[in-house]
Amino acid sequence: MQLEIRPDPAEVGRARRWARSRLAGSGIASDEPLAETLVLLVSELVTNAVLHTGSPAVLRLSLPGAAADAATVRLEVADASTRAPVPRCAGDDATNGRGLALVDGLADRWGWSAEGEGKRIWCELDRCAPPPPLAATPATCGTRTPATAASGEAPCAAPACTTPARATAYEQPARTGLAFDAPAYEAV
Question: Which of 11, 102, 155, 162 fits a 20 to 30 Å CA distance from 80?
Answer without folding.
Answer: 102
